[in-house]
């Protein structure tokens, strides 16, 4: 009898924990952070996503950014990739498997930069990896399709002052700022909301690697 009670308790606990996980497809990205629809605060919690009734990914989001261990699966339930995020970027060891369960690759990352790779190609390869990763999620129906993100404007096109204006209106959207001396490489990528800093700002070194992040 005691064994039956213990089993029921474990079963109820497992069901309760599974209910606490949010469907990742219910989140939306705003200025580089993840939010629940109609919620003004960046999302925090455990997430899962499904494809054809099976788990396709599971992980954690903290203050709108992917954090900690994330696992992605093939439709047959086999792991596809596994690794950790820090402040929304791949960080540490990432392992990759083929659909038959054979591990075929391992990579090391530091704040989104893949170690041992030419800095000039790292950003493009990371973006390609993220696109492949996100494709695991089920595509939303046409009616729920999100509009294309606006292209970032050059920071120098914005008016000076505490509130940035563009074409006579307080600017809302992404911007990019470049180094002026020597190399014309990217210096800052970020967002403004009604002319004021918002969301995640990324600062770069002259060689294109990430220097630091700031959140507004």
Topology:
Layout: H1 2-19, E1 22-23, E2 27-30, E3 33-36, E4 45-51, E5 54-62, E6 65-73, E7 79-86, E8 89-90, E9 92-97, E10 103-110, E11 113-114, H2 119-134, E12 153-154, E13 165-166, E14 169-170, E15 173-178, E16 186-193, E17 196-204, E18 210-215
Parallel strand pairs: 1-4, 12-15
Antiparallel strand pairs: 2-3, 4-5, 5-6, 6-7, 7-8, 7-9, 9-10, 10-11, 13-14, 15-16, 16-17, 17-18
Name the features:
216 residues; alpha+beta; Histone H3 K4-specific methyltransferase SET7/9 N-terminal domain; 2 domains; nine-stranded mixed beta sheet; five-stranded mixed beta sheet; 2 helices
Explained architecture:
By secondary structure, the chain is an alpha+beta fold. The chain has two domains: 12-144, Histone H3 K4-specific methyltransferase SET7/9 N-terminal domain (Single Sheet), CATH 2.20.110; 153-215, no CATH class. It is 16% helix and 44% strand. The protein contains two helices and 18 strands. Strands 1, 4, 5, 6, 7, 8, 9, 10 and 11 form a nine-stranded mixed sheet that branches. Strands 12-15-16-17-18 form a five-stranded mixed sheet, with no helix packed on it. A hairpin with a 2-residue loop joins strand 7 and strand 8 (89-90). The model is unreliable at 14-18 and 118-137 (pLDDT under 50).
Q: How much helix, percentage-wise, in residues?
A: 10-25%
> Termini, distance in Å?
56 Å
Count up the domains.
2
Rg: 21 Å
Which H/E pattern describes the elements? HEEEEEEEEEEEHEEEEEEE
Please report the total strand number as a whole number. Answer: 18
The number of helical segments is 2
The CATH class of the largest domain, by name, is: Mainly Beta
Low-confidence stretches: 14-18, 118-137
Q: Could you please say which CATH topology of the largest domain applies here?
A: Histone H3 K4-specific methyltransferase SET7/9 N-terminal domain
Oligomer: single chain
* CATH architecture descriptor text of the largest domain: Single Sheet
Report the sheet-strand fraction: 35-45%
Mean model confidence by pLDDT: 79
Shape call: globular
Main sheet specs:
9 strands, mixed
Structural class: alpha+beta
